[in-house]
Design a protein that fits this description.
alpha/beta; 22% helix; Collagenase (Catalytic Domain); binds zinc ion; Peptidase; 3 helices; single chain; 22% strand
Length: 199
């Protein structure tokens, strides 16, 4: 089977009742702080990823370079495949400022939805993640922001209480550019849980 076959049809997935909540119990890293979606854990064995292409200006090239660096970091932990068309992706990175939330600006945002998608004649429910990463911040900040938002996108829906983790709720003074040991333990735990969306 070719990876990431073109999408032939895409509509919003039917609503489902939320899963019964599970007690976090004994989990490594900050896995106890992760929340499953209504459909369960949002993990895929292979993620089809699209990145907004750069324009002719230096600023968009700079954004693109920073985001590519973050994707390369995640690619050492997860299986990613790049797609040329945004419509064929599970996860899309957009070069834009997230809309204000409660009157406050932020550098990045991760938005998750579920869609009923037909690929190669087969209909499946897939996650669709849109990451909005601001271009108007320092290159280091674009890198740290996209690394963090990609973590949400790849299923880490929750935050760590330690500033040295990629998924820190409150980032410390030094931008984080690599997954910490706790990030890796948490990711590893998550990808060993049954996926709520995997085909
Ligand atoms: Zn976050």
């Amino acid at each position: 089977m070719i990876p990431c076959p073109p999408v032939e049809m895409r509509v919003a997935a039917p609503e489902v009742a939320p899963m019964a909540s599970i007690s976090p119990g004994d989990r490594p890293g900050y896995a106890a702080a992760l929340e499953p979606s209504r459909r369960g854990w949002v993990t895929l064995p292979l993620w089809c990823v699209w990145v907004e292409p750069p324009g002719p200006d230096l600023w968009s090239k700079r954004w693109h370079g920073a985001v590519e660096t973050s994707l390369a970091t995640w690619a050492t932990h997860l299986k990613l495949i790049r797609v040329k068309n945004a419509s064929d992706a599970h996860l899309r990175l957009w070069r834009r400022n997230p809309p204000l939330q409660g009157g406050r600006a932020s550098n990045g945002r991760a938005l998750l939805s579920f869609e009923l998608v037909q690929r190669g004649g087969k209909k499946i429910v897939e996650p669709l993640v849109d990451l909005l990463i601001s271009p108007g911040i320092r290159q280091e900040a674009i890198e740290a922001t996209s690394l963090h938002e990609l973590g949400h996108g790849f299923g880490l829906w929750g935050h760590s209480d330690q500033p040295t983790d990629v998924m820190a709720a409150k980032p410390g003074p030094t931008p984080i550019k690599q997954l910490s040991k706790r990030d890796r333990l948490t990711l590893n735990w998550l990808y060993n849980q049954p996926s709520g969306v995997s085909p």
